[in-house]
Amino acid sequence: LPVPGYLAHAEKRLREENERLLHYLDQSSKWQLIHTVEKQLLAQHLSSILSKGLDLLLEENRTEDLQLMYNLLGRVKTGQQELCSKMAEYVKKRGKVIVINPEKDKTMVQELLDFKEKLDKILRQCFRNNDKFVTSLKDSFESFINQRQNKPAEMIAKFVDSKLRAGNKEASEEELEKLLDKIMVIFRFIHGKDVFEAFYKKDLAKRLLVGKSASVDSEKSMLSKLKAECGAGFTSKLEGMFKDMELSRDINVAFKQHMAHLADNESQNTIGDKIDLTVNVLS
User: Fold this and answer.
1) What is the pTM assigned to this prediction?
2) Residue 244, class by beta-carbon neighbours within 10 Å (0-12 exposed, 13-18 middle, 19+ buried)?
3) Kind and range of the H or E run holding 174
4) Contact partners, residue 210, CB within 8 Å, separation at least 6
5) CA proximity to 280, closest of 246, 239, 240, 235
6) Cα–Cα distance, 52 to 65 (Å, whole number)
7) What is the pLDDT of residues 202-226, one digit of tens each?
């Protein structure tokens, strides 16, 4: 019998025994009777239920079956604890496949976001946002995402660049803001944040210098998120770039006003020699 079918059978047998208690037996028999059913159908088969069924249910997103498993194993001593441990094993194993394989580099971040969203939904719908499960999920993500040094940090920076670059028509500013929040959740698990900073700084410089940033508001929103997460020291150079651009813009405006003033004072014959110059400098 497949695990989902077995779980449904166990639930049915428990319901039947409760009905017998109501109709035929004295309530003093309740604890012993139900405890015996739980022991025979659940406790004695706990490792088998988890090893044969959990990975498949998680992989196929079988929320109803997972909820039933959580509720039934909650009746057994250490049942939910074992479930939590097995879930962590699955997350590490499945997550490692996403992170380690170089062929998945281009889709790594989107797959990580989808994987996290799927597991968060399972925690909410099936495991009642149990604190131990939430902590275990965070620890598992941190474990597998750092098994490949530096690359996840690089790919997250490049992913953010693709979303903040002009021409990204995939999302409105509101949707982009939500996406940046989700990216920050993944970013928190990364140990090599200095690697992320190096790539992010280079990409930000390109966006600013060639005017390819989709939105200044979104850029500054991302910086504020990084500042809140890593401190002012982490973002000081990045914030300095925006100040450099503003200074460059002011100098360019002043230069153009100066040239226009010179042109007004010169004869018509020399206006053709007017200089048009725009310079942006980032330090």
Assistant:
1) 0.87
2) middle
3) helix 173-188
4) none
5) 246
6) 13
7) 999 999 888 888 888 999 999 999 9
